[in-house]
Give the backbone structure.
Amino acid sequence: MPPTDTERDILLYLYGEGPKPDLYAPGARDAYEDLADLKDLLDERPASQPSQAALTSIFEAAEAATPALQHRPAVPPARRLRLARRVGLAAALAVCGGVGYWLAVSGGEEPAYVAQEEVLPAELPAWDAGDDLRAMHLRAAELQGGMMDWEEAVPLESIPLDEAGGEVPLQAGMEW
C-alpha cells in the first residue's frame, strides 16, 4: 500500500527535507511515532555493501557489451581554422563573381523607376517653386496672413466665464 500524503510529509520531515507536518490531523500523531521508530531501527542497522564478486561480474558484463573505441587523433584547431578560411574565401569569390556576371548581363540599363522623365511630370504645380526650406516657410506664413500674428492675441483674463468657472461659448455677434 503506497504511503498517504501525511506519511510522505512525515518522512520528508524525519529526513530533514520538508517542513514540520500537521500532527493534529486524525491519525497523524500515531503515524509519526511509527515512522520515527522505523527510521531509528533502520539507522541502527549496519550499511550493507555488495560483494566484490558481484561488482566484478557487473563490470565485466558492461565491458563485454561496450564496443571498443577506436583511437582517432583530434583534428588540430589550426587545420579547422584554415578550412573555415578557405570556405569563406570561396563563398566571397562566388558572390563577387555572381554580382559581376549579373552586372555584365544586365547591360547597365537603368530600371524604369529611376528614369527622371517617367517619375516627374512635365510641369511642376504652381505652388512648387523649387525653393529651399526657409523660403517655403516664409511663403506659408505669407499665405496664412494674420494667423501668424500674435500681437493681437486676447488676454486670458478677458474670456467670459459662467458662475461655475467654466467658459461661456461664443454666440453669433458676440465679441470679446
About this structure: The chain has a mean pLDDT of 76. The two ends are 95 Å apart (CA to CA).
